[in-house]
Amino acid sequence: MQKELVIMSSLQKMLAILDLFTEEKTKWHIDAIIEVMDFSVPTAYRYIKTLIDAGLLAKVNSSEYIIGPKIIKLDHQIRISDPYIVKGESIMQSLQELTGCQVLLSNIFDTEVINVHAVSPNNWKERITYARGVPHPLLKGSTSKIIYAYLPRAKLLKLYNDNLASIKLENTSESTKDFLASMSHIKKLGYCISHGELDSNLTGIAAPIFSDNIIKGSLTLIVPTQRLEVYNLDRLITYVTEAASQISSITNDFN
Fold first, then answer.
1. Which residue segments constitute the domains of the chain, with CATH numbers given?
2. pTM for this predicted structure
3. Which of 30, 115, 217, 230 could form a disulfide with 209 if both were Cys (CB 3.0 to 4.6 A apart)?
4. Is the C-alpha dihedral spanning 80, 244, 127, 57 positive or negative?
């Protein structure tokens, strides 16, 4: 048992190297990896060689590395096998055609909310900051708020307490009671609207997606805020909530 724990710990440390690669820093030098991860030189080279052999890392030169080709293959596999994408694509397409706006599908992984798919009009020119694969900021924007609102109370409280510093940074006056009341209000509505919280020129209208009554993600309609006044907001909300409900229904059948 002790040996299994050591092996698992080593595996976790090796895979943690992949977390170093971000949009801001796409290439890492071996010396920087050793310093940041606090690895010994032999351990670092052993881990990196294993990741390269698995296709998870690739060499740029003798001492610098980038994300490897296996990630691309896995990304393709997600696109063709994720039931929410496979079953939700046509519903998202219909919502996009109905509104002329971009539609996002996001999932929650543990407590991290990530956009996994987007359907956009051909003439769509708006650029979103948190595009596919970019984790959403905690409790900012309708996409993540609607998901977190449906988490079990104990998990929601842990999320709040574990991220208290960043939450207070966003809203210095919000107490635990205020936070829970805000989440409860969103849950009662069954949808969430945010104006310019992630991108100043965009409004998000999000509704929850479930699997066996457990929150799994959200569907978000992205509307240019300056165009919002020409829409019937209540109708947009209905479109989004109904589309999200349809995805929940068909993915339940997939299970």
1. 2-69 (1.10.10.10), 82-254 (3.30.450.40)
2. 0.82
3. 217
4. negative
